Amino acid sequence: MTSQFELSDDTPVYVISVAAQLSGMHPQTLRAYDRLGLVSPGRAAGRGRRYSLRDILILREIQRLSQEEGINLQGIKRILELELAEQRSRLQLAEMHAEISQLRAELESTRAVAARLATLLRSRTDGGTLVPVRDSTVGRAAPADSGPAAASSAGLGAGSDRVAGSEPAAAAGHADPV
Fold this sequence. Notes:
By secondary structure, this protein is mostly helical. Among the domains are: 14-71, Multidrug-efflux Transporter Regulator, Chain: A, Domain 2; 74-124. Helices cover 51% and strands 7% of the residues. The strands form two sheets. It has a three-stranded antiparallel sheet. A two-stranded antiparallel sheet has the order 4-5. It is elongated and about 90 Å long.
């Protein structure tokens, strides 16, 4: 569990004067970059800007791109947007890879169960089903035949809602008086 005192790289803790000093820029420059949307610091209760470590690193990258590479602010904004989109895509891809791995493991497990059931079914010599159906008239489990003839001899057709061994109420002498 995360403590209220633990800080991440995204925790807004630095006031604008400290952030300006850490990034090597003037506070007015930071305000201008905020207005342009190059960096979006958090806000304190009194609406003062609070910069995170990640914001400081972005400010340093903006300065590097501007001074060393000669890229204008609109170009820098586009670069930052593309880098953020790439980062999101990489995270999504990693999540998908993890999900695919999980699904492959589940598929292998299901195949192993299916193979075991097929082996059990092939090893049955009496032609019965793997799960016996309870014969309610005798009160003991009796193996049910699994063919269509067995279903019709028990009064069960395809799609029937009746349970094997049960009879309609009228045939059992439980007819409702009219």
